[in-house]
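cron nightly-structures :: item 1 of 1
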Amino acid sequence: MKFQYLAPWAAFGFLLISSPSSYSAPLPYGEVTCKQGYVWREAHTTDYVCVTPAVRAQTKADNQQANNRRSPTGGPYGRDTCKSGYVWRDAFQGDHVCVVPETRSQAADDNAHAEERFVR
């Protein structure tokens, strides 16, 4: 009599098929894993746009300077009014951190390329 080993789950009708060529390890951060050379921007706790490490460092510095770049007397946007020479970053809806115009342009460009910078 020939015996065949059946894994315990086989008795319940489960069928697992996998081949080494089709298996891929789970991504470390799921669907928001950045491609090599990119990191999360982190303009906010839920900001997962992938940017260069230099842009993330600039974002952190801009966040730290946010209060110093607002007009102390307010203005057309209340307490969110930026001092002269600064504009809202607009990295996400409601992002009123005041930055130089080039930084806002960088944030818009990073947002436009967000999907292509994720590992898929």
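cron nightly-structures :: done
The helical segments are 53-64, 101-112.
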